Amino acid sequence: MRFDLITIFPEFFAGPLEHGIIRRAREAGIIETHVHDLRNWTHDRHRTVDDRPFGGGEGMVLKPEPLFEAVEALLGPEGQARGPAPTSAIVLLSASGKLFRQAEARRLSAFGRIVLLCGRYEGVDERVAEHLATDEISIGDFVLSGGELPAAMVLDAVTRLLPGALGNEDSSVFESFSATEASKESVLPDPRPQTTVPCLLDCPHYTRPAEYRGWAVPEVLLSGNHEEIRVWRRKMALGKTLRNRPELLAGAALSTEDARLLTEIRSGH
């Protein structure tokens, strides 16, 4: 299996790739790891990878162009990950993604190649999640400064499932979260206390350009109407939470506005 890690801090991976099972798997030829500097796919003298978010707000957002160009340079213009029988997975590490569990690691271990996109700053332009990544993954209910640590964790979890990576093949079968994971999840209650206020994933972010490959930034973010932008962001956050982490909404005391927005989402509006 080949792993491609796309990051603005390529030197970060010098440590994680040189120890333990990852190092042994590389030396045995079970995996290949290639670290790529995202700035290599920029075209200005400052090698700019981020810009301000449309609609206002804090922080900076990673631009779509360098990420699209990086993945296409590695996989070809067709992506090789969105066809009827994909051999590659393009994984965006994001706090707004689906929670990474052992079943997901096992699913990814069936691919021949995985591209890991390491986000930074406030987030990544949503067009990357919608039109480039095949998977958007979170490693937990907390926020990190970037996707490098999560990418290293995903790489480790997937590698140890590959034939020959562990000295004893049964090690990955009879350990936590493996053999009986699916049945456990179906019968055990959520151990976390029920919340009274919904804990939502972040809303989508967009930055320049306003249109990229025919995918336009939502008009509301260009309107300058702060109330409309606030409601849109809340609705998008509710929608993304409903898709990726519905358990976060279970048992939550929704505001009247949240309940109305969720009704609209469920009805397709």
In words, what does this structure look like?
- With 269 residues, the chain is of the alpha/beta class.
- It has two domains: 184 residues, 3-Layer(aba) Sandwich (Alpha/beta knot), CATH 3.40.1280; 79 residues, tRNA(m1g37)methyltransferase, domain 2 (Trp Operon Repressor, Chain A, Orthogonal Bundle).
- It is 30% helix and 16% strand.
- It is built from eight helices and ten strands.
- The strands form three sheets. The protein has a five-stranded parallel sheet with strand order 2-1-6-5-8, sandwiched between helices. A three-stranded mixed sheet has the order 3-4-7.
- α7 crosses α8.
- The longest helix has 19 residues.
- About 6% of the residues have low confidence.
Number of helices: 8
Distance between the termini: 42 Å
Report the top-level CATH class of the largest domain. Answer: Alpha Beta
| Integer average pLDDT | 89
Relevant terms:
3-stranded mixed β-sheet, alpha/beta, Alpha/beta knot, globular, 5-stranded parallel β-sheet, 10 strands, 8 helices, Trp Operon Repressor, Chain A, single chain, 269 residues
